[in-house]
Amino acid sequence: MALENLEIFEIASKYFLGQMTDLKDLLVRKINKLDSMDWVYNKGSVKTCKADETGRKMRCKVGLKYGLKVELSIDEAELIWEAFQKFFKESYFEKIERNRNNEELGRYEFIARTPKGYEIECRIYLANEWNIPQISISGFVSSRYKNCDFSK
């Protein structure tokens, strides 16, 4: 996949959904209890921006998500972080970070971003009095023109 093709909305949407699906599948292979559960998929929605000076409208895709209610351990959260880092180091995502602010509450957050504004996030909530145990992989595609807009 050429990086310049990711400027086209349809191609970028398909690519980043593929990245999320590939990450989910990788995690399922690494952690057995993720394989025996039913993942919930939300296809997200397309938001249309205001028309620019040429009359073309950019679009973004928000709400893409895989979710699963499952009880994970701290060790499994660490394995997921290692897999997350490795997976996105081999992609167009240049900024990979871990938000440690809420880990003492059993909430883990891993984020991969591109300079163009795409983002994929993995959140893990461990079981405790504040959390419903779960894992989610979510993302969005920043504003892009559709393929047909490039011919105008």
Descriptive overview:
With 152 residues, the chain is an alpha+beta fold. It has one domain: TBP-like (2-Layer Sandwich). 28% of the residues lie in helices and 32% in strands. The chain is built from three helices and six strands; from the N terminus they run H-H-E-E-H-E-E-E-E. It has helices spanning 9-30, 32-35, 74-89; strands spanning 40-48, 59-68, 95-99, 107-113, 119-125, 134-144. It has a six-stranded antiparallel sheet with strand order 1-2-6-5-4-3, covered by helices on one side. The chain is elongated. It starts with 8 loop residues before the first helix and ends in an 8-residue tail after the last strand. The model has no long low-confidence stretch (mean pLDDT 90).
| Main sheet strand line-up | 1-2-6-5-4-3
Helix-strand string: HHEEHEEEE
| Biggest sheet architecture | 6 strands, antiparallel
Mass-distribution shape = elongated
**Low-pLDDT segments:** none
Number of strands: 6
| SSE class | alpha+beta
Strand content: 25-35%
The CATH class turns out to be: Alpha Beta
CATH topology: TBP-like
Rg is: 17 Å
- Secondary-structure arrangement, i.e. CATH architecture: 2-Layer Sandwich
Taken together, the total number of domains comes to: 1
- What's the tally of helices? 3
- Compute the average pLDDT: 90
Tags for this model:
single chain; 152 residues; alpha+beta; TBP-like; six-stranded antiparallel β-sheet
